[in-house]
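hi! just following up on the protien thing from before. the input was this:
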Amino acid sequence: MMIEEGLIKGVGSDIPEFFGLPSVKVVGILTPTGTVVDDYHFTSLATFAGLTAAKQDILVAESPLGDLKIFYLYDSNNIPSQLKTIIDPLKPTYTIDGINYLSTYIGYGEAKMMSDEKLFSQKYDTIKGFFGNNIIITGLPKKTFTGLDMMHFVPKVFRDNFQK
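and the predicted 3d structure came back as:
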């Protein structure tokens, strides 16, 4: 995709201003797998540690089944442009029967997987103790054909109770 969009020419290309880093160099391009892995950038730990988004806006956890789960921590300043009309940063929590739930939006692919596993069935379902938090599914964005489809979008306070 990055080649098709003219962002890089291939191996050896520099990507300027990459999520808080002045530049990163493409050192390899993997063969397509037909999986979500095709949407990711793999970096060294040193590069990852320098990414602004990694420090402030992203949590990565392993599910009990060994899958990687990505949590995008949102507030009113960092909602991805594709989701600005869907995510409401002004309503990060809901209280139902005295229990607080964090407003959670689940990307298309992740929502399908969670629905197939019967973790929820529809918008406004709640899940208690989800990685240490109670959540309410407040949005199910349409498919974006990007890595956003595999993320959970949760308010930044999700980090406070986060349990891997």
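The chain has two domains: 14-54, 58-161.
The CA atoms of residues 124 and 138 lie 5 Å apart.
cheers
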